[in-house]
Design a protein that fits this description.
Elements: H1 6-39, H2 41-44, E1 46-49, E2 57-63, H3 71-82, E3 86-91, H4 97-104, E4 109-112, H5 118-132, E5 139-144, E6 147-148, H6 157-163, E7 168-174, E8 185-186, E9 190-193, H7 195-199, H8 201-209, H9 216-233, E10 238-242, H10 244-252, H11 256-265, H12 271-285, H13 291-302, H14 315-322, E11 327-328, H15 333-347, H16 356-368
Parallel strand pairs: 2-3, 2-5, 3-4, 7-10
Antiparallel strand pairs: 1-4, 5-9, 6-11, 7-8, 7-9
Length: 374
């Protein structure tokens, strides 16, 4: 009998540890912590009034930057104001006096709070603050600083989301499993709520019943997945600027030469995908069939998109052909590879020039990261 490899044992033990930790957190710790937190809610938050007016079009921007405010955050604040949104900033860390001054000059209100519950914990406090203060927006945007946004000054993402005229919209509509559509969700780094959802009793019920967690998987499950599924269960309209069908339609409309260039520009963080796409390119160069196989593969991975993401595998195509306006800041290998690909694409003028501030911060992130090829 072949002995079990040690790395496999460690992997399974870690998975078991993670499951037990998530269960214990969800069952015991999170509800108790939430009860105590809500009892002292008003005392835990520090509210500051900004220089701009709070209107019926509100964007809640969540930031967590304990090492100091980034220049790209100021860019985001300016973009929101220029796009007609009044901003409530929720910081999961106490800002320095100079940083607080910079934020207050560009927003209507600033809340400083403990770093509890990731982005959805901060979204919850922002929503509760607005409703308790009788500021009930007609339009609401939720976004956080886990991405660089907008990556270009002329970005139209917010305008295009409004033009969708739906009850809940986002940048990316993600399908994790084509056979388990209850996992469908809009990615939470940018969400927009229409008037019909905001006026529905289920909206406030969601936030009042939402239990914050410091476990990332629990936050994704209870937060971005549940808010999407809540809207869908109510029969409300939900749509993303990017979703699998839209990407497949765009790719299907390209010529063979254009499509083969797309295949070459893909970001591979998995060796099996790289080997498969290299084989398709070889078939293309040899005059053998490949196009339909590639489009079928794209459909398969985007309708089961836990590994191959718009913001990684298809990042250049998403930016150039679909107007994707963000780049993720995550430090894992696949997002590092995506950032490198974006810099190369800009250098070779395959995509429109990035904002200079964004470019500099991405270059810094690339230099500080370690990248392993697939």
């Amino acid at each position: 009998m072949k002995p079990i490899e040690r790395w496999k044992v460690r992997r399974e033990l870690w998975r078991l540890h993670d499951k037990v930790t998530r269960w214990a957190s969800a069952t015991f710790y999170d509800p108790v912590r939430q009860f105590v937190y809500d009892c002292f809610f008003q005392h835990l938050l520090k509210l500051h009034t900004g220089e701009l007016e709070l209107t019926q079009r509100v964007a809640i921007l969540v930031i967590f930057q304990p090492k100091g405010l980034s220049q790209s955050t100021l860019l985001t604040l300016d973009h929101l104001h220029e796009s007609g949104w009044s901003v409530l900033v929720v910081s999961n860390h106490t800002l320095t006096v100079p940083d607080r001054f910079k934020v207050l000059s560009r927003c209507a209100q600033l809340i400083e709070r403990p770093n509890v519950g990731y982005d959805f914990g901060a979204y919850r406090d922002g929503v509760r603050h607005l409703w308790q203060g009788n500021t009930k927006p007609e339009n609401l945007v939720l976004l956080n600083d886990s991405t660089w946004f907008p990556i270009r000054l002329n970005d139209t993402s917010l305008k295009r989301m409004e033009a969708l005229d739906v009850d809940l919209s986002g940048h990316i509509y993600k399908i994790e499993d084509s056979e388990k559509r209850e996992r469908d969700h809009l990615e939470s780094h940018l969400l927009m709520f229409g008037k019909r959802f905001l006026e529905h009793s289920a909206f406030l019920q969601f936030w009042n019943s939402y239990v914050m967690s410091d476990n990332r998987e629990n936050t994704i499950k209870r937060g971005e997945k549940q808010i999407t599924q809540t809207a869908l269960s109510l029969g409300l309209s939900v749509q993303g600027l990017l979703f699998p069908d839209s990407m497949i339609e765009i790719l299907g409309g390209l010529s063979d030469i254009e499509l083969s260039n797309i295949v070459r520009q893909m970001v591979h963080h998995r060796n099996d995908a790289k080997v498969y796409c290299d084989r398709l390119l070889a078939n293309s160069e040899a005059g053998q069939p490949w196009r339909e196989d590639y489009l079928t593969w794209v459909s398969d991975v985007l309708f089961n998109s836990r590994q191959h993401l718009f913001s990684v595998t298809f990042i250049e195509t998403a930016i150039h052909l679909s107007g994707m306006g963000f780049i993720k800041k995550a430090n894992d290998n696949r997002h590092q590879l995506a950032r490198i690909a974006v810099l190369h694409a800009e250098d070779e003028k395959r995509i429109e020039a990035l904002n200079e501030v964004i470019r500099q911060e991405i270059e810094t992130a690339v230099k500080s990261g370690v990248v392993a090829e697939p």
